[in-house]
Amino acid sequence: MTLDKRRRDILRAHCAQFAEDDGVNPRDDYQGDGSSVYGQSRKSKQLCRQIAETLDLVLSGDCHDKILQNLQVVSVDPAPNTSRLLVTVVADLPDDQVDRQTILDRLNQQAGRLRCEVAASIHRRRAPALAFSVIARPRPGGDGNSRP
């Protein structure tokens, strides 16, 4: 008998039903690269929250561009992981003054400086790359849906 057949026979002797995951060490499911469900989500949420606070402060205070000073960071999400982050901002300007493409162009021009500010505020070996998305501010008194 091979070792697998002996192990299977021993397991069958100790249980009523034999399943696929019987005899498998649950610690083997952990990848070791931070991809566990609890560890990655908690740490990535913590990182995203810290970066959102930093970018909000930099955009509102240190930025000399009037359009970028009127931006508020809505969310920072991993895209697809924490090495690249999607920063969603909303312009605190009237609808007729909001040009999303202009805002995206100016954010992309300042992306290097913003990434340096993020790198100074977090403790990681490499600063994540930043991608930007601009959304419209929801209209007051509306149904709460933002205009595309």
Q: Could you please describe the fold and organization of this structure?
A:
This protein has 148 residues and is α+β, with helices and mostly antiparallel strands. The chain has a domain at 36-135: 2-Layer Sandwich (GMP Synthetase, Chain A, domain 3), CATH 3.30.300. The chain has helices at residues 3-14, 37-62, 66-69, 100-109, 111-121, and strands at residues 71-78, 84-91, 129-135. It has a three-stranded mixed β-sheet. Strand 1 and strand 2 (84-91) form a beta hairpin. Residues 33-39 have low confidence and may be disordered.
Structural Rg: 24 Å
Mean pLDDT: 80
The percentage helix is: 40-55%
Q: Would you state the CATH class of the domain at 36-135?
A: Alpha Beta
Largest sheet: 3 strands, mixed
Q: How would you describe the shape? A: elongated
From N to C, what is the helix and strand string?
Answer: HHHEEHHE
Class based on secondary structure composition and strand pairing: alpha+beta
Give the low-confidence spans: 33-39
Number of strands: 3
User: What is the overall number of helices?
Assistant: 5
The name of the CATH architecture of the domain at 36-135 is 2-Layer Sandwich
The name CATH uses for the topology of the domain at 36-135 is GMP Synthetase, Chain A, domain 3
CATH homologous superfamily title of the domain at 36-135? K homology (KH) domain
Tell me the span between the first and last alpha carbons: 66 Å
Strand order of the largest sheet: 1-2-3
Strand-residue fraction? Answer: 15-25%
